[in-house]
Design a protein that fits this description.
The protein is α/β, with parallel strands linked by helices. The protein has a domain of about 180 residues. The chain is built from 13 helices and 21 strands. Helix 10 runs parallel beside helix 11. The chain is elongated and about 80 Å long. The two termini are about 30 Å apart. The N terminus is likely disordered.
């Protein structure tokens, strides 16, 4: 469009005034919904006279107000918003507007439908409190129309040893009768934070407990979490919990033996770090079978022989929502996330991820074995344990795409073994795609030769190879055998492979009928 001469372009465009008002409003609302808070009014009301006339008269479009703006801009937004409910954003430690912002919230609290209170950076060395008392005082007032509250705490300063001060919000149920969504980010207190008789969405970001700058004391954060969940159990529909808490979640095991039921929960996202508290959490909290469950964990484990016990690595399949999550898995990735440092004895994380048919994440868990000795001889054992644990789970039998990237060490391929490839082909007959990276293709081809005449890999359509040596004549024999069985491959991918012999032209595989060759 912009390559045309300006004069010609001007002749072809249609006046925006011909667009019906309903469509203009729809365009404006869709654009506005994609923005959190726009900076100023002029860019959104100066397109043309027709646009300006349309948007200025729509009061709800002016109801999002950032209290860090100049008071004159805020006043103009308020006059155009008229009596519409307000969504306000205000930042702590923004000194010029602090008195004005506090007064604004106090005076307009009966109109406010959404509050976004955030700290824009890390806690400075000279800070004595996280939020001044005057900021916290605003929550002692009644907000009859407030339905969304977002509070972002500052990142704790890792370089200081001073403990963070505990923050006790004066939250009262009576003050928030319409609160439906609560987001607390970088939370640094374990007290029960807020309750509401109609809370629908609860997002808690507790990852700040992973820093030395945290609340003193021994009281577990799980106590406050239990209280919040218990008070909102009848209405909660969306729950998200992030954090590691340095073991403070271990007290979940001490929750009452009778399960806490969340009968209306539709979405649950759990993210554990350092310690995998997710399995025990799901054994203490009962959720409906149709709950859309997604989990992520990054943790360390000393005794790697116990990693793959039921309910340790992933939540137990006895939980209906977990069974459904596994049954929806169509893409499975099993890979080492880093290379071994030959001069040291690091912990090598093994990452296992599952995705649904739309490649949306279902579970993503990675763990590493800490050891005082060289753990490299144990890595193959752990990888094989993980794969065998996965193929023995009947709820993962619908996997259609498998991606494996074992550890390549000392210039030699380490895994997978031929017998394991054979077991994979027998256990997961629905597999259509296999992606093999940085390991030996020979073991896969050996396994196929052993599976000829059996049901192993009956639906395989695509084979992608990444950064590994390829014996081209043997691969050609494999493709021919698949064709003779009436199950030819439709796609073959090469990504940074080394052909053997090196003089072999990979484009020669294009001669196989119906085979699409993909190269990078």
């Amino acid at each position: 469009m912009f390559s045309r001469p300006p004069k010609r372009f001007g002749q072809n465009r249609q006046p925006i005034g011909k667009i019906p008002t309903e469509i203009l409003l729809r365009i404006f609302k869709e654009w506005l919904a994609s923005e959190d808070f726009y900076p100023y009014e002029l860019p959104i009301a100066s397109v043309c006279k027709a646009w300006r006339k349309t948007v200025i008269g729509e009061t709800v479009l002016w109801s999002k107000i950032d209290l860090d703006w100049h008071p004159e801009v805020i006043s103009r937004f308020m006059s155009r918003a008229k009596n519409s409910p307000l969504a306000v954003r205000l930042s702590c430690y923004y000194e010029p507007n602090t008195p004005f912002s506090l007064d604004f919230v106090r005076v307009q609290r009966h109109r406010i439908r959404s509050i976004n209170l955030h700290y824009p950076g890390k806690l400075p060395f000279e800070a004595e409190t996280v939020y001044p008392a005057e900021w916290m005082s605003i929550f002692s007032y009644e907000f009859p129309r407030l339905n969304s509250l977002f509070v972002k705490f500052p990142w704790a300063n890792n370089e200081t040893s001073r403990p963070a001060l505990s923050i006790d919000f004066d939250f009262k149920t009576a003050n928030f009768p319409q609160l439906r969504r609560l987001d607390l980010k970088n939370l640094i207190t374990y007290q029960p934070w807020v309750s509401s008789i109609c809370l629908r969405i609860l997002h808690l970001d507790l990852k700040c407990f992973c820093t030395p700058f945290r609340v003193d004391g021994t009281a577990p954060i799980s106590d406050g979490l239990f209280t919040v969940l218990q008070l909102s159990a009848a209405t909660l529909e969306d729950l998200e919990i992030l954090g590691d808490l340095y073991g403070r979640m271990q007290y979940i095991e001490q929750w009452p033996s009778e399960q806490l039921e969340l009968p209306r929960l539709a979405h649950l996202h759990l993210y554990a770090r350092e310690s995998n508290w997710i399995p025990i959490f799901l054994q203490r909290v009962a959720i409906p079978e149709n709950t859309k469950l997604t989990i992520k964990s990054e943790w360390f484990h000393q005794a790697h022989d116990e990693i793959f016990r039921e309910g340790t690595f992933l939540p137990p399949s006895s939980i209906p929502a977990v069974r459904k999550m596994k049954s929806l898995t169509r893409v499975l990735r099993v890979e080492y996330d880093e290379e071994v440092d030959p001069d040291g004895f690091p912990s090598i994380p093994l990452k296992i991820s599952g995705f649904d048919s739309d490649h949306k994440p279902l579970f993503d868990t990675s763990f590493a074995v800490n050891s005082d000795f060289d753990i490299r001889p144990e890595l193959n054992k752990i990888f094989e344990q993980a794969m065998r644990w996965l193929i023995q789970d009947p709820h993962l039998s619908k996997v259609q795409c498998l991606i494996v990237r074992p550890l390549w060490q000392d210039g030699e391929p380490s895994f997978p073994h031929e017998r394991l490839w054979k077991d994979i082909g027998m256990a997961w007959p629905a597999i259509r795609e296999v992606h093999i990276a940085e390991t030996s293709l020979d073991n896969f081809l050996f396994a196929f030769e052993r599976l000829v005449g059996t049901t192993g890999f009956p639906n395989l359509e695509c084979l992608c190879l990444y950064k590994l040596p390829v014996e081209c004549f043997r691969l050609g024999k494999f493709l021919t055998a698949r064709k003779d069985l009436g199950r030819p491959l439709s796609r073959l991918g090469f990504f940074g492979v080394t052909p053997i012999p090196r003089t072999f032209m990979l484009d020669a595989f294009k001669t196989f009928p119906g085979l699409t060759l993909v190269r990078m």
